């Protein structure tokens, strides 16, 4: 589990990132979860954008992504979800204690 201090740090790190995945009308599917997992392994921190035409609530989408990718939810802000998962081979982000 991330501490408040770590979440603040990750929010600051994510600020300049652009969303690289979009959840639309189809909602979250297995293929998307797999791709996001792979991207998290490379980047550790990423943003997912929830489009206007998505039928699901953005908080539900965030929970599905967290469950599917085993990542940590950093924040849901507006229609953007910020996810973090420590990389096994490609560790770049050093979290504050």
Automatic annotation (TrEMBL):
Q: Which organism is it from?
A: Sutcliffiella horikoshii
Respond yes or no to whether keyword Zinc-finger is given for this record.
no
Has UniProt tagged this entry with the keyword RNA-binding?
yes
The protein's superkingdom reads Bacteria
What Pfam families has UniProt attached to this entry? CRS1_YhbY
What PANTHER family has UniProt attached to this entry?
Answer: RNA-BINDING PROTEIN YHBY (PTHR40065)
Report what the protein is called: RNA-binding protein
Q: State the NCBIfam families in the record.
A: RNA_bind_YhbY (TIGR00253)
Q: Where is the CRM domain?
A: 1-96
The coding gene here is: yhbY
* Record InterPro entries: RNA-binding_CRM, RNA-binding_domain, RNA-binding_YhbY, YhbY-like_sf
Keyword set for this entry?
A: RNA-binding
Q: Name one GO molecular function term.
A: RNA binding
């Amino acid at each position: 589990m991330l501490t408040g201090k770590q979440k603040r740090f990750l929010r600051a790190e994510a600020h300049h990132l652009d969303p690289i995945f979009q959840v639309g009308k189809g909602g979250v599917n297995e293929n998307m979860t797999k791709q996001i997992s792979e991207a998290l392994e490379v980047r550790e921190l990423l943003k997912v954008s929830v489009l206007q035409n998505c039928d699901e609530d953005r908080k539900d989408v965030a929970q599905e992504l967290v469950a599917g990718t085993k990542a940590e939810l950093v924040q849901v802000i507006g229609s953007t979800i910020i996810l973090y998962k420590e990389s096994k081979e490609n560790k770049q982000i050093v979290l504050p204690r």
